[in-house]
Amino acid sequence: MDWHPLRLTTPVKQHAFGGRAIARRLGRTGLPDGPVAETWEVSDVGGDASIVLDGPLAGSTLRQIMAGHPVELLGPRLPPGPRFPLLTKFIDGRGALPVHLHADDTTARRLEGEPHGKTEAWHVLDAAPGATALVGVRAGVDRDTLHRALLAQDFDAVMRRLPLRAGQTVFVPGGTLHSFGPDTLVYEIEQTSDIQQHAMRHRMEDGSPVPDHEWHANLDRLLDEWRPGPRPEFHSGLSVRQDDGVVRTVLCAGPHFALERWSAGAATPLSYRFSTVRILTNAGAPVTVTAGPWTGLLDRARTLLLPAVLGEVRIQGPADVLIGYVPDLEHDIRTPLLAAGHGPAAVAALGEGLGPRVAER
Question: What does the pLDDT look like over 40-95, one tens digit per residue?
């Protein structure tokens, strides 16, 4: 087969908290009228699967490609599971997102009957002055205290409200209670899952009220899936200079995913090699992407899926792109960042699994 970068359909979610920032601030075209809360750039979630738009695989879902061409798509290192491992989104928090959490892997298997949970990370693309996020619960808050605060809908009594600004990223482990907005635009990367437990009295889809019996059941399940420990912080990532004018910034990393932001000037094309599948999303002006004989334009706020079999792409600068993938934490993240002079504590703060134990294996 003649493999090349894959353009995919992007399911759109018109939840009540959304606005028009993805169109107005990012220049995204082809969106429906009305509020647009999320565009799912790469998705293998049941009922919202991405479909290839052109080329030999046109009309195939991501799950069909996983089944028929797992090694060519993923690369030999990643296990060929039934689902594509990553989900990426643009999210417009014109209003505040519901306070909610997603189960971690262990809890998802125990309580949700799912193979894994959902750890995620947010990279802030735009935010109003003074914008904040609720991320994690304060130290010393126990289940009963949290339950009382959720019943009163007094989230600030128990949760950590953190300032945020464009260019920052936060890694949010499964089981962490969270929300962001209003007036916040993010790019999100996460495990492929749509399990979630909400604390709100209204539905995020349309703002309609949640009946009392359903709301109390939601709170009970949320408390069962809550992890009190994680208290993530926003940070600016760790940068490493590559060729002239090319900078790699690691925004976050953990066992399930890494997200990086690469920039390049006009003089030096960004040449990027890889052995496992990559998600390439354009955060800047339109760029030209080349893979072998294939060349195509990638507009701002658009995404290409790069099958592992391609091995390399070239991006003509000036470029400002996001690259998501499933990392080998030692090889891809820890070793090059330490070699570039970043300290062990700074590297470990990028996510999970990056402490000294990684090097001791």
Answer: 999 999 999 999 999 999 999 999 999 999 999 999 999 988 899 999 999 999 99
Nearest to 281 by CA among 303, 261, 264, 262: 303
The number of CA neighbours under 13 Å toward the Cβ of 274 is 29
CA distance 344 to 348: 6
Residue 164 backbone dihedrals phi, psi, to 5 degrees: -140, 160
- What letter does residue 301 receive in the DSSP assignment? T
Q: Which two tokens stand for residue 152?
A: 């009163």
Report CA-CA distances (Å) from 234 to 154, 351, 352: 23, 11, 14
Q: Which residue has the tokens 């890494």?
A: 258
Which residues lie across from 240 on neighbouring strands? 248
Return d(Cα 201, Cα 168) in angstroms, integer.
Answer: 30
Sheet of 294-298: strand order equals: 270-273, 312-316, 287-291, 294-298
